[in-house]
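Ticket 4471: requesting a sanity check on a complex prediction with iron/sulfur cluster. Repro inputs:
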Amino acid sequence: MNVLLINPIARSWSKPNCFPSGLGYIASVLRNNDHHIDVLDFNAIRQEDITYEGWITSKGKKDYDWIGITGIITQYKDVKKIAKICRDYFGNVFIICGGPLATSVPDLLLNNTEVDKCVIGEGEEVIFDLMDDIFDKINLNHRKYSFVTTIKNLDTIPMPAYDLFPTSVYCDNPIAYLNTRKWVDGSIAIHELRPHTRSMNIIGSRGCPYNCIYCYHNYMGCGYRVRGAKAIVEEMKYLAQNYNVEYIHFGDDCFAFSVKKMKEFCEEIFAMQFRSDFKWNMTWSCAGRANVMNKDMASMMKDAGCVGVCYGFESGSQEMLDVMNKHVILDNYRRAVEISKEYFVYEDYTFMINMFGETDETVQESIDFCKEVDIVPSAVFFTTVYPGTKMFEMLVEQGKIFPNDYAWMEKYILCLDEQGEDMKWSDMLWWSKYSVDHVKQWHKEFIGKTNAWNKEKHV
Ligand code: SF4
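Returned structure tokens:
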């Protein structure tokens, strides 16, 4: 089949530095099955004077069998616009939406946009069932029909089809700790000590074994799965050889979770160098879990090139951590901070305020905790209720959120801010006895007293 895959613009205030891995995986499995793929990666090729419409129509009217659009929740507006342009330009073409957006608000997409089908969850296998339907012309008038799937063995999927995307653009713009403005205002700045280091994000695992109530990744209880060490290291090597990448940031939610898997991965890095004469000059960073981190793990990670670990601490109040269902105690945090300071050159700790039951006292506990363990939070966010989270469900049950009122939902989604740096939905205090001004004062004080990085707003 002829397929057009589209990646909308993300974070228009910043340069593109995060490769669209999900779309890359879809492109890869489709190509391996002899389908013809065109990619329009608007996020990489963005130019101020060219609109979505201009780009799509300038490519000429090809006879596509279907068009796939990916997106995260904050790209809803762009996905809707692109789907409409495709409908107007390509006529009856079949439009499929995937990624976190389709997984968290499929009904909204099917009702309020030109999207014909949503792939809920992981699309690399089920996309072929959907293509069979397109070929056989069955189920196609039934817009309420989406797919749900989970891949059990991640090693059955080839690495993303980097060569079909403008991958070099992503490598040029530093990611994670190489981007020194990451948490200041989300824009891109080059690390003065490693100014020419080309970087890339990859995925080492999917899912997460935990169920924090504000997090939407675990929507289907699909479980935690890690790719084989060999496949991950091969991908890193491929990026080094083909794109001169020297730094990898693992974008998955919880790469440093399994000590056994981490050991296999670190050992494979050394084994690969032993097997080949390839000059390995790669450093990397990933997300960690404080209750899992220990000295043995940190030591082997450091030896294998790890330079930093990111932790979503979220609060320094045990009461708030329990409300969040974090499954950690503050002593886990104390130990993780101590170990990370000892072994890594870069640490990243994020916090959030205004969780259910937050008070003046619990905010103060968080500030005191940062001072006690001597850390500077990289960011302090306002709690934001994203669709697909346990928090969202709880508020639906309480009659505060209306997922089946699509006009309401659309307005709500369009207000959500990507990094929760401001309260864009004035009713985000559904559960609080405090005023908006009071909560904003918490934010100001937390940032001021801990010197947290995110002082500036996106422009
Ligand atoms: S916040 Fe982190 S630990 Fe909690 S469910 Fe999400 S990914 Fe897992």
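Notes from triage: The chain has 17 helices and 14 strands. Leaving this open until the requester confirms.
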